[in-house]
Amino acid sequence: MKIRKLSIVLFLLAVLFQIVLLLSIAYYKEASIRSGRKIIVTAIPFDPRSIFRGDYINLTYEFSRIDLKKVARSKDDFYRGELVFVKLLAVNNNWVATEISDTPISASGNNEIIIRGVVNEPNIRNVINVVYGIENYFVPEGKGKAIEKEISAHRATVELSIDKRGDASVCKIFIDNREVAFR
């Protein structure tokens, strides 16, 4: 009888641990979004469809493609999968990459922010592609095509929240300065 009770207790502890783990991940992401600095960036979207994941908008950003000849850098060569820190500078209502490093860097003013990413395509003609984890934005089933039509004819911008560690999250999408409502 004692072994059975112990088994039940261990099972419940395992289930409780998994629930706490899932909730802590969600809490961390929500806290990151709430406490992060909000910036508006220009996006270059298109709307793919995944049978398993549903409708989503794939977003790329001007600072996703970095010309190493035009930015300060910590070294000459970056490799696929390498963690990098990119300094963005606000220039004429747009955020552009001004520095890339494989070690943490800091922003020196209100018009700068650091975003953390991973090199996706290294040094092809001194240009690298960096992904930040903000490239896919899921939309309600059936909304992707309508958003794609609207975006193709207008200017799309995205509100990002970037926390102190440089982790970014998509908060809102705007088309011609109007927030896209997913209802």
Core attributes:
2 helices; 23% helix; six-stranded mixed sheet; alpha+beta; 183 residues
How would you classify the helix and strand content by structural class? alpha+beta
The fraction of residues in strands falls at: 35-45%
Number of strands: 13
Radius of gyration: 20 Å
**Overall geometry:** globular
What low-confidence regions span 5 or more consecutive residues with pLDDT below 50?
none
* Integer tally of domains: 2
Sketch the topology as an H/E string, one letter per element.
HEEEEEEEEEEHEEE
Compute the number of helices: 2
Mean pLDDT: 82
Helix content: 10-25%
Describe the structure concisely for a colleague.
This protein is 23% helix and 44% strand. The protein is an alpha+beta fold and 183 residues long.
Description:
By secondary structure, the chain is of the alpha+beta class. The protein has 2 domains: 1-35; 38-179, no CATH class. The protein is 23% helix and 44% strand. It has helices spanning 2-35, 144-152; strands at 37-46, 49-50, 54-61, 65-67, 72-73, 83-91, 94-101, 112-124, 127-131, 136-138, 156-162, 168-175, 178-179. The strands form 2 sheets. Strands 1, 2, 3, 10, 11, 12 and 13 form a 7-stranded antiparallel beta sheet that branches. Strands 4-9-8-6-7-5 form a 6-stranded mixed beta sheet, with no helix packed on it. The longest helix has 34 residues, at 2-35. The protein is globular. The model has no long low-confidence stretch (mean pLDDT 82).
